[in-house]
From TrEMBL:
<keyword id="KW-0418">Kinase</keyword>
<keyword id="KW-0808">Transferase</keyword>
<protein>
    <submittedName>
        <fullName>Nucleoside-diphosphate kinase</fullName>
        <ecNumber>2.7.4.6</ecNumber>
    </submittedName>
</protein>
Amino acid sequence: MSEQERTFVMVKPDGVQRGLIGDVISRFEDRGLKLVAAKFKQIDRDLAEEHYGEHEDKPFFDGLVDFITSGPVMAMVWEGQDAVRQVRGMMGETDPAESAPGTIRGDLGLDLGRNVIHGSDHEDPGSNEREIELFFDDEELVDWERVDETWLY
Ligand code: RTP
Ligand code: MG
């Protein structure tokens, strides 16, 4: 059994506006991941620029920051075995058009910008811890047991 780990997930403004928060949360609950923290918030530009700092030299950076600050997001931390990779698999590819049916972006995403969800990147080790710290204080991470823990992922 691989180690439990935590990953940062965010329903982006398009997902919030389209009423998809519940659908996204259900998928992770059904998969057997455990919710550790959640926060519904409006991101300011400073936070957006720091969160997406790896892309600051890309031509799409300003548009990405405009989009992610265009309305509230649902920021969350989910825990489970290999959770970073697990969640990325459930998300699909960056472009919804390239994402398999059954994935969040494949089922719900509209286009490369409006792709519903962010998740920490398993190809960028440490991004999960960095992003969790950026959005949550330590005391906001809830230590609890789900009654059905034996059946969790
Ligand atoms: P995210 O960080 O939001 O979870 O998405 P990701 O890892 O799948 O993709 P990433 O390469 O980190 O890109 C971050 C977001 O930037 C937008 N993007 N636009 N125009 C473009 O070529 C382009 N490439 C990326 C996407 O909205 C992507 O989610
Ligand atoms: Mg990324």
